[in-house]
Amino acid sequence: MNYEPVIGLEIHVQLKTKSKMFCGSPNNPDVAEPNVNICEVCTGQPGSLPVANEEGIKKAIMVGLALNCEVPEYSKFDRKNYFYPDLPKGYQISQYDQPLCLRGRVGTIRITRVHLEEDAGKLIHEGGVTLVDLNRAGVPLLEIVTEPDFKSPQEARKFLQNLRNIVRYIGVSDADMEKGHLRCDANISVRKARETKLPDYKVELKNLNSFKSVFDALNYEVKRQTEVLEEGKKLTNETRGWNGAKTVSQRMKEEAHDYRYFPEPDLPVLNFSKAYIEKLRAELPELPGEKQARFVSEFGIPEADAEVLISDKNLAGFFEEVVSELQEWFKEDRLPSTDIKKFAMMAVNWIIGDFQALLKEANITPRESRVTAENLAELVKMVDLGQVSVTAGRQVLGIMFQKGGDPSNIVQDEGLAQVSDETALEQSVDKVIMENQKAVEDYRGGKQQSFGFLVGQVMKELRGSGSPKVINEILRKKLT
Amino acid sequence: MSISIDDVKHIAKLARIELREDELEKFRADLNKILGYIEVLKTVNTDGVEPLAQVTGLQNAFREDQSENSGLQKDIVKNAPESERGFIKVKKVF
Amino acid sequence: MDIAFATIKELRKLLNTKQISAVELAKEFLSRIKEYDQDLRSFITVTEEQALAQAREADRAIAAGEAEMFTGIPFAAKDLFSTRGIKTTAASKILENFQPVYDATVIRKLKDQKAILLGKTNLDQFAHGSSTETSYFGPTHNPWHRDRIPGGSSGGSAAAVAASLAPFALATETGGSIRQPASLCGISGWKPTYGRVSRYGVIAMASSADSIGTFARTVEDLALTAEILSGFDPKDSTTSKKDIAPWSDMLSGSLDDCKIGVPKEYFVSGIEPDVEKRVKEAIEEIRKLGAKIQSVSLPLTMFGSMVYAIVTPSEVSSNLSRYDGIRYGYVTKEARDLYEIYAKTRGEGFGDEAKRRIMTGTYALSAGYRDQYYLKSQKVRRLIVNGFSEVFKQVDILLCPSSPNVAIKIGSAADDPLFGYIADQLNIPAALAGLPALSIPCGFGKPKDGEDVKLPVGLQIIGPQWGEEKIFQVGHAYQQVTEFHKMRPRNL
Description:
The complex is a heterotrimer.
Chain A: E1 3-14, E2 52-53, H1 54-66, E3 74-75, E4 78-81, E5 91-94, E6 101-106, E7 109-118, E8 122-126, E9 129-133, E10 140-146, H2 153-170, E11 182-192, E12 203-208, H3 211-230, E13 238-242, E14 247-249, E15 262-263, E16 270-271, H4 274-283, H5 288-299, H6 303-310, H7 313-332, H8 339-362, H9 373-384, H10 390-403, H11 407-414, H12 422-435, H13 437-444, H14 449-461, H15 468-479
Parallel strand pairs in A: 12-13
Antiparallel strand pairs in A: 1-10, 1-11, 3-16, 4-5, 4-15, 6-7, 7-10, 8-9, 11-12, 13-14
Helix pairs in contact in A: 1-4, 2-3, 5-6, 7-8, 7-9, 8-9, 9-10, 12-14, 12-15, 13-14, 14-15
Chain B: H1 5-14, H2 21-39, E1 62-63, H3 73-78, E2 83-84, E3 87-90
Antiparallel strand pairs in B: 2-3
Chain C: H1 8-16, H2 22-40, E1 43-46, H3 48-63, E2 74-78, H4 105-112, E3 116-121, H5 155-162, E4 168-173, H6 179-185, E5 188-191, E6 211-216, H7 219-229, E7 259-263, H8 273-288, E8 292-296, H9 301-319, H10 338-349, H11 352-365, H12 371-394, E9 397-401, H13 419-423, H14 428-432, E10 437-445, E11 455-462, H15 468-480
Parallel strand pairs in C: 2-3, 2-4, 7-8, 7-9
Antiparallel strand pairs in C: 1-3, 4-6, 5-6, 5-10, 9-11, 10-11
């Protein structure tokens, strides 16, 4: 019997605003010292009142729009009441039945809703006491709920990666799961393959703190649940936590959560005009999916390469700058425009190859590196024009990364110029032919490797700075 | 409809208020009295009426995204019955 | 002139002409407090040292010619207003020693003008009540007859002004807590349009109805306080940007064009005969001033208390969740786990009425009941608001009693949980609708318990939303032709 997974995700994204959602305390939950970014509002002092951060609302709506949601005309905040030491007011300001965004879709995945709420503080349990740090209390949090449309743990992981990219592109969050900017709970059940009805139970998975854990935990559950069903047993609703190796049932309190939602009386309703929503939509930057498609169609680069580029907004941006620089130069030199695809390809190879490797090792972004888009573009051009060999070019890139500088200067300083001038090369070729008569005869006698040997000798003579292409041509001419 | 002692206990739990045994009956009687009062409300026809949330009719009350230092950090932590190394401390846990 | 009974305007003149200094003025009231408040118990905290220091600052400002309307004017504040560094208890054990870290906006506004805070006054615990008897610190006594209640929840502030322990006092109202005590204590009280005055820093009761107002000796004084306290506050999202008019300058003018409505449902059965007589006499006085009186109807009046009985506790139950002994306030000494920290702290720290409201509200909002109770109530509330809007198309002002009875004896209503609701049925509908209102003294009457005493009766003036100008005009006009607001309790 084949079983297939039915997976839904509930994702929380911390929004990057200067101040918290309902007060002016700094939004910096990662600060080291406890209780420094706090005020009377976010610590729930008697008499304090919330005031909504407009930027938080804007960013929330923009994410909803990027997920193709509808933005209803009216929305409001509600109080979600429960008691916990990390919740200063004894209620969380959230949204219940009139969220900011509804009914979106990303590919085949339907987005149920996107709503805004405030984060709770952090608790540290040590030695029988609990330490409360309210730096994070009040930070704006976006909650994104999907329908149970994921058909595999793969799909879920891909969606999360895509979502992370989207929010990074819009600039609303760093969405680093390891830092807690992005949190994910998953709901999973299994049903017989090709069954269309939803299963009558679902298992909620918690403690997923990386994309890998999401993937591994879901895979584990698919296996576990399938086994249980194949043994003829039933599955019921429960919450399980992932401990790195398996999921473990979490003892649920007897009473279900009764949050006693009611409209937040301290915050007036939200009313968005169509014009306002369209203005926000116009402010959306090109989203990863769109950019990827454009790279493929406009620059003719392969899908897979485009995917690598757009997975990092900074890399994609850098690539576009390099291409733009190249376009400028080649326009000046009046080369036909179909070449845009050629140098886009060259740029891609350099960026995805050596450059990205260097960035990863140093753990910096392109903008933080010493290589400017102009520099890299110039290097690409020099290699294309044969002024520098590929090998030498890679060396130049390394030096640029270390110390910065113009590639042309570096080539000069390091003596890396590739000699392409025929006359200069002819001299060396003649010299090598004279000093290696045996090899010449071997080649004329049919031994192909000897040709390579001779090319190598010329390169050695030129200390690696000869254009192999031109050397080949000259040598072939002279030996026939 | 009437409130039972179990109902009272359940509500007290939700509200995190420990009631003494002798208080339970008193609250049960009190809540019942008030609930009786409330039953009459149901006779008012509210078809097509939206619940009122804000008498002022205000909408879209926002503030700009600016951060500021409240300067109250130490005072806030000092007000906590227990604190340690800048944290607010809760003595009992889970 | 007896300084103790002078109005704010009179005191301003005395201070500006240096006939008295701010320090002398503060000392006068502080000594009256010492002399009379042992019996009255209207203050929880008297801030003598701070008051004198503030008075010295005020004198400096006056000498430098920088006096504003409230510079050097002493006042008292209901102990719900956060005052930085000064105990703010809400008259509850759970905040018995709590010192706020910031000032309420209205406190700051008065501070900015160098008004003098004399102290924090008594109230029903967390503003839950109509008699000030539920205070953790014991009841306040009505200055007119010490064995009677001053009304509530702002009983302390009302008694303080009635006994002239302060020229004016800050108070709050959610369902009658300013109008009813003003009536029972024979002074003038103002409840603003909801959204006029910032609630920031005022310990919340029912957020959608809480209003910040004042007690004073005259309507003119109330208008002065209205001018300084009103205004948009960026820290309170429910405040309006509506302009503040110079109401104290707009008090005179004939009432010839004024159409007065007398809601027939407000003369409820159960109103004491003397109350009804005094109020009708007052209405007649106003008619003599030129106003046109007509009967109007507010058919949903009887449902006001019921809506209030659900909406208020619901919001209260949520607003009081923050009192858990973790970040401030009282915490239980015996707790075996987290649940007990919450449950015992709140069980031990809250008084009965607070617990009752939290329980009711929790029940009303809990799963399955939210629609039946809370949302249903908010729908009826909208109908009540509509009812007022309709009536204010026909008339400019409504007149009625502020309370169905004069002050009852302390202890005689403590055990009836509906006492508060019935006593406030004249005040709740306007409060739910967020309308502005005044209660001004209009005579005396005998209580229905038969004792042969004369106790103050209050006339209630209700205006349309944002109608402060109108209610002040009518109230002021009445006080130009009557003397009730000048009367004072004997032996004070």
